[in-house]
Each structure stands twice: as structure tokens, then as C-alpha cells.
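Feature request, filed as a ticket because there's no other form

It would be nice if the structure record came with a short human-readable summary line next to the C-alpha cells. Right now we just get the raw output. Example of a typical job, pasted below so the devs can see what we mean:
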Amino acid sequence: MQITATSRNPASLSSACSIIPLYAGRRLRGRSQAFDDIDDAAGGYLSQAAHNAGFAADFNKTLVLHTPQPRHKTVILIGLGKRKEMNRQRFDRIARSAAHAAAALKPASVLYCFSGARPKDERHATRQLATALQHACYRYLSTRGATKGKRKDKLRIERCVFHAEDVAQARAAIRESEGIAHGINLARELGDLPPNVCTPAYMAEQARKLGRSSGKLRVRVLSETNMERLGMGAFMAVSRGSHVPGCLVCLEYRGGPARQRPVALIGKGITFDTGGISIKPSAAMDEMKFDMCGAASVLGTIAACVRLRLPLNVVAVLACAENMPGGRASRPGDIVKTMSGQTVEILNTDAEGRLVLCDALTWVGRFKPECVVDVATLTGACVVALGNEASGLMSNDQALAEQLLAAGESAGDRTWQLPLWDEYQPQLSSNFADMANIGGRWAGTITAACFLSRFAENYRWAHLDIAGVAWYTGKNKGATGRPVPLLTEFLLDRADA
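Raw output as currently delivered:
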């Protein structure tokens, strides 16, 4: 999709679909210059049709009008509600609604007339609008039938124009949105692929492919042999149950000064999770292909860094494996030795994500990171606690936690902080090892983070549990690409600091 910005009068522009936001009120004219100009060009058709339809521009309400004006044959009016109630969260909802309304019509071109209707931060608003449109236009086609896939591909929006008062700011925002949307849709594509295609080896190849696209990226892949030599017993306890080998993928993005300590991102990449010997129920087990969305979002974030040419050093680690109930699979009661030297009693083989992550957390310490953020679809308990709206956040450093919280608010990809108190640590006690891999029924999200915290004591660390936000379930199932917006915003904020 080609996205541009202009300050020309919207009435003089041509578009298959024009989107005009309006603040609430009985009289719509006078509330948007773009609305007034296009309405005048259409002989008052917009205001009359909106009046006849009873459209009062209530918050998040839309009205699709087909006009006699040849330059603006289809116009989508979207209500902003009361001006005094507008904030970033409400505007982000408007951005998503506008994008889905436009994508549903499948026009060849779109004109956004939001100038003057945005919150104070116009650059942020334009970025959110452009990112939402690119998100809404994503279509999974990789394993669809050829004829159906080609037909759907032809229905994509080809061009989008933003009417803006400050064209330079708008273009900067569009550039940022293209990087973020690229990362989001890469993560979605990887998550949507079937598990017989998106294996650990496939994830490694996608990392190598990304590495070949940029001279600032170095990619290394650790095989199971490498990991065994390093003493990654917890990782291997998960991986060895499958005939598909696991791997640890490392991408070093060198955009900053050589001496700058990197930000490290670690993603859980369980490309299919049966639960192992502690096997899951068969209902909806197909959705366990999404258990690699942490790794997919980390790879998507690095792809965004490359597109945006961020002046930072970032290390991304993808901990990729299948969790299968094979003859070599670990059993409940097994004790494994981690790379850190600590031992773990495996009480439930379906608590495998923390086992691959704990060795990755130890290994990433060799980069002397400024901070580490791990991302994982880790616990069903997080879905129970927070639903599908927010990721769970736990950290051993409050300043880092607050940076992630702020980034999530700004990006419209929110997270919520949960406690990481010492009082929860005894739930991981074991009679036979340094710790158990589960802490019982209560506070499951927190005790999972407590487990990981024992491997992150030498640096500033935060854990994002994305189990509730990484994919849509049921009939409309599919990967969301979260938390690529949050992570990219977090890195953008650091680049701007």
C-alpha cells in the first residue's frame, strides 16, 4: 500500500473512499472543514443524508454514504463523541473502527480527512491511523487455494492519502507506521502459518532471511548439540520429545554506538504445544500453533527496527521448540539442570515455556544487556485475570516496568502490572530440586514470573505474559501481532531519549 500526505483541499482530491470524523452535535456543519468542503462540492448531500439517517456523530458510530460527487463517491462518517471526552485510548478505538470500515468496502484508494479532529499529538494520531489501516488490510493467503487467494489479493487497498496541516509531521508518522505495521504483519503471518510449516527450523530461516536484508543484523542459530554443550538442560527437556529439532535463534541489531549496551528481547517460540506427557484436551488444540507468538513478535519488532533504522543496539533471542509427547519426552517427576546450574523438578510438562525461557535468560547475560524483556504466551491464568485486553507485566525493576506501561499506553497496546513479591516464591518449593516448574493453582501468572525471575537476577528484567492478547480465538481465530506495537514504541522512546 502506498501511503502519502498532502495539505491540499480535500474537496479537490479524488478517492474511492473518504473517511471524515465528526465531533458530536445536532448540527454537523462547522465541525470539520473537510466535511464542509466536500459537502459543498456534493451540493449539501452529506449533511442532508446524515440528517435523514439520524447521525449525530456519537462516539464510534459510523455512517457510509454513497454520494453523487465523482471525486468522493463513498464517504464514511465516523463519530468522535464529545470533544472534551477525547483521549488517546478513545482515539485508538476510532482508528481501528475507521480502518475496518474502509477495509470492509475494499476500495482501491482511501482519503483520511482527520486534520483538526485529532488529539494534541498529531504525529501519534496519524501513526495510529496509518498503522490501523495496514493492520486491517492484512490477509492470510499462504496456504489458501490459488484462485481464492489471488481474488482476495486484488481487493487490497492500493493507495491511502492523509490530509494534514503539517505534512512533514504526517510523513514522519507514516514512515513510523510502515515500520510498525511491517513488524505486526510479519508476526501475524508467522503465527497464522500451520505448525507443519512454521517449525523451529522455519523460524530460524525467517531470521536468516531478515538478516540478509540488512547489514546491521547478525544472525546466529544454536542447534540442539550446541545447547547440550552449553548445559541447557531445561530447554532440552522440552525439545527432545519431538523429532523436529529445537533451536535458539539470536539476532543482533547494531544500530547504535559499538559501546552501547543492548536492549535484549527474548521470545517464547513453542511452534506447537501438545502439553507433552501432561497432554492438553483435544478441543481447540489446533490453536496451540500460536504458542510461538512471543518469538514471532520479537522477530517482528526487530524487522520494525530495521525498517525504522533505529539508532539502538538490540539483541533478539527466539527460543524455538515443539512440545510433543514422544518416547524421549520429559516426564512429571523428572529433574533437569539448567544452564545457570539450578535444578528444576518438572511437575507438569505443559509448563514448558518457562523451561525454554530460563535457559535463554541465562544465555543472554553474555551480552551484558542494559535491560531484558521476555515475551511469552505463558499462562492461561493471565487470560483469566486480564482477558484479551492487556498483557500481564512483572518486573524486578520499577523504572523499566513504568517505561513499558507508558509505551503500551502510547501504542494502544496496553499492559497491566502484577506484583512480583517474595511472598509468592515459596509456592515453587520442591523436596527434590532447587525449584518446581509450577507453583500450584493460585496466582499462576505471578508464580510463572517468579520462576523466571530466578534466572534474571543479574540485570534489569521484565516479563510480558501475552497469552490473552496474542491471538483471536474461536471462529475468527488468528494472530494479532501484539505486542509488536508496545515493544517498538518502547524502543522508539529509548531512541528519542
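Something like this underneath would help us a lot:
The chain has two domains: 2-165, 185-496.
The chain has 15 helices and 19 strands.
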